[in-house]
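Reader question, answered in our methods column.
A reader sent in the components of a multi-part assembly and asked whether the whole thing could be modeled at once rather than chain by chain. We filled in our standard form and ran it. Here is what they sent:
COMPLEX SIZE: two components
ENTRIES:
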Amino acid sequence: MSSRKTIDPSGFSCPLPLSDHPLVLMAHGGGGRLMNQLIEKMLGPALSSPLLDQRHDGAVFEAGNARLALTTDSYVVRPLFFPGGDIGKLAVNGTVNDLAMCGARPLYLSLGLILEEGLPMDTLWRVVQSIRDTAAAAGVQIVTGDTKVVDRGKGDGIYINTSGVGVVANSVSVLPANVRPGDALVLSGDLGRHGVAIMNAREELGLESDIETDSQPLAGLVRQLLDAEVEIRCLRDLTRGGLASALVEIAESTGLHLEIDESRIAVREDVRGACEILGLDPIYIANEGRFVAFVSAASARTAVDVLTAGQQEGGAAVIGTVSEAGPPGVTLKSRIGVDRIVDMLSGEQLPRIC
Amino acid sequence: MSSRKTIDPSGFSCPLPLSDHPLVLMAHGGGGRLMNQLIEKMLGPALSSPLLDQRHDGAVFEAGNARLALTTDSYVVRPLFFPGGDIGKLAVNGTVNDLAMCGARPLYLSLGLILEEGLPMDTLWRVVQSIRDTAAAAGVQIVTGDTKVVDRGKGDGIYINTSGVGVVANSVSVLPANVRPGDALVLSGDLGRHGVAIMNAREELGLESDIETDSQPLAGLVRQLLDAEVEIRCLRDLTRGGLASALVEIAESTGLHLEIDESRIAVREDVRGACEILGLDPIYIANEGRFVAFVSAASARTAVDVLTAGQQEGGAAVIGTVSEAGPPGVTLKSRIGVDRIVDMLSGEQLPRIC
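And here is the structure of the entire assembly that came back:
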């Protein structure tokens, strides 16, 4: 075929050894080690730009006289509807939250639908209503869109991409590179609900529970932190790969050592029970309404107070610190007092969670 | 399921009669009448906002002190590689072009990949290289991204979403609502190459030809038109549904009557031959590097000169006018001198062309 490139004309060869990684696996989208390798050894180096190289939840840049954030996420969650939410709710809140994690005030979203031929139109209508209601609740507008249809069997009902634009105040700088030794790690709430709700909705599991997704827009909470003059270094929402993967990613990109205390991490009893039955560790489970804030030690208490006051449900806590020394990575002090190293998952725990 | 909504709590019912449209069909993504209905009777009314209601290729808004454009497109073209291009090239140029059609200078793109389990990693690498090279040629940066993987059989290799942000000069206003009677319709070049190249790449057709996609970034040409002080009212690139659908859409949204002259529309001989064999009309075929400019009558000649000077290949021409009277719609004077009404296709001519 005329477009076939056997040799990259620029002489740039892929840092990911393709012979060792011949095929895309589910885990390449799972938020763990393989996805990290795909990003660090193929997508990142090939598409390198100063903004992409920040490895943030979005890009913050100047355009015209404005300081803006741009972020994107595709949503392929299965099933489309689950306790407490659906793919439309995730698609709006997820992108609103990525903007919030950049310290931005979310304004405008784009909506890209990839529909499978034969999808019941009523299903699409339910998802569209959810998108509308979630956008209204989050205070954002859908301003542009695109719809594609793929052949029956070449999709899975609905895939959604939302991209978002927000405005970042000049005083705000929220970036992995800002994290420094002595900072506190503040977790915004309890872990694990979204992942357990999705697993439960997949009929093969059949757990009896009323656990619902924790999907919610986080921009309001971030704004409250900023208004309270909490010194925020970095924010990260805890989606694919959960708390563990988010922290390992930040530890590796900053070269710092993070220490967390398992006993400070809130997990609801029913979620913990479900995790034990399933053999899962809550720190790896995806959330859709939780984030970790790296803040100055002096701000930690205020941050917890703001997060506690700003939500109906509890669980906000200082869960650890950025260590003064130690190799890049994450150590967890377990409930029984034993230290262990936290790594990303190498395989795929929960495919298509978002 | 707890999230099941049988009644829309807002009392808003879908203007698209779902009993008449029970399932999503390929044509709902085809750029013709069914897609138009889906947008006008479901997505548009449900998600209505002043920007979305403009029915433009993107949204232009103020953010901070800047005037910006945001646009999004998903790419599901089949096959992934075809003469003159691939899905990565389309994904970059397509979104650059939607920004250009808003009169924006394209700056930053997001990249959302939906990969199918089992995709050869080498295929992904070829697409990533194409994305990199096309972005460099178009002068845009990929600044943020997302990767999802779906199960084998639930995708088709690679789907790509690109969203883009550009800056719009204060002096520029390029919108369907600006079109007025007496304006000239200027076509930027010859029609039909992209669609014929794709069809040819689908092995079932087996035409002998070296027709390549016309995919190219159009922002440079738009800039040259603006620099030459062409009075641009509206711009529209001629992708899914081709010239015909683009013009009908603008005629319907403005309530104006457009008259075009088939003899002024350039179609290469080999493209015309392929169309005749396939029973297709070139005005309905998708292009990825062509647009129509609605310009003041006084600017029409300059526009054609700029477009001719700015491209290696010809075909730029005044192909019609916005009529002073007549019902909303499009009339084509055929090569044999007969007038006929141009409508959108009701079915699906060429699925998954982009």
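What stands out: Residues 211 and 237 of chain B are 20 Å apart (CA to CA). The two ends of chain B are 36 Å apart (CA to CA).
Send us your own complexes using the same form.
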